[in-house]
Sequence to fold (484 residues):
Amino acid sequence: MRSLPKLSHLTIFLVVLAMISEVSSGDEDERSPFKQHAAIFFDGAVHTMDPPDGMIGSGTREDPYLVSGFWFNTTSSPGVTIINSTSHILVDLNIFTSRTRLVHPGLLIVNSSNVTVRNVAAYYCSRGIEIRNCTDIRISDSGFYGSNDGIYVEGRDIEIEKVDCKVNIYSGILLNRSSNIFLRNVTTSSNTAILGVTSGIRIVDSSDIDIKNSISSLNYGFGILAESTDPSSVLEGIRISSSLIDTNNNGIVMSRAVNCTIEEDTIQYNTNGIYISYSRDIEVKGCGFNKNTYGAFFSVSSDLDISNSEFDRNENSIYLDSTEGSNIHENVFTNGTYHAIVIDTWTGSGPLSSYNRIFWNNFRDNGQGGCQVIDNGDNNRWNEGSIGNLWSDHCGPDLDNDSIVDEPYIIKGTANATDRFPIASRREGAVDENEVPGKNVVITDTNDLNFWLLVALSGVMTLLLLAGALLFSAGRTGKVDHDL
Fold:
């Protein structure tokens, strides 16, 4: 299989400058590997190419059709269209952009499979890539900027890895009626619309979505939004792990979801770190919630499990609204402005939160030395068996040395609840006052592209985005490291 040589960051930057100055005036630059090309169209085994009979490759796995080294103006049509094809096609090292914004997708793939997209940059298209009714599609090492949606997917068995989706109007990545989708090392940030729903990643009526080692930050609406638009159906099998959800209006939002997992993520500086509604069997474990207005807000949900996580310096760490049958255990709650846990009915008129169990947690210095938790629910239990929780404002006395404070801990609120067995000191199975569960997640974003919003309205947007994305395509990407 033929491939272009890898170019240095400086070489790519110089190539982009030359390409913009020459191609924009209607002339091609002979020094540049990027040639302006008319739209390419695949329909089954039939394709158009310049010259007509000169397509590189034979369409097999070992020798795929190769579209490489071109610059496409998508004003009048998609740059590359692939429909009704099972041939192996590689779209590698190309640029898609529209001189008139938001007209056509850069790359359109419909009713097809076996397509690999890598090292591409797309700007100002209706969608950078639009995928409909497809399987076995691979997208990697690419950047999508300034479009309605960076990547749009309807399909299954699709992998998206090492891509940047920034400064798009509605969504960095939109997954619609899809299944078995894998996202790895994806960065979605600064996706902002004045009106409408804006998300780093938006998941609609989909299942079996796996997001790992990714960054979603500075999105106006949602970092990750997963929702079911059909009241009779639910989302299932969404997993978000080892990722950074940072400085969004809402971090992770799920509505009408079942059997989903949020694991080992760092969730910080959001209004709602996570917001789960009308859902059940959701597991949150090993996460770090830092400096959110609400760390985790659960509404009209059941059978949740929140464990082994750290909640630090949130205004309120966990809020249970009309939620029942859930477990909150082996977590550390520190320095909350108001409360570590609030059990209540948000509207004041819904069913009481009930039959939740809170045990083996460490509550330290929440409520500014005042009230650490509130229970306005019904039949919630603040201990498991003969072990409750560790409270910084109720550590003793323990005159019989059984590691349990001699007097119960009084829980504020209308439920008149108590922790019957507050922990006095470390005991097997309990949480030590200095123990922080979960992993230490360190995020390093080497793209340094947060300037995009500042230049979005300037006349040099195209130049900066083209140069930045090709630098990204040469190998610069966000990274999530784990210090285990």
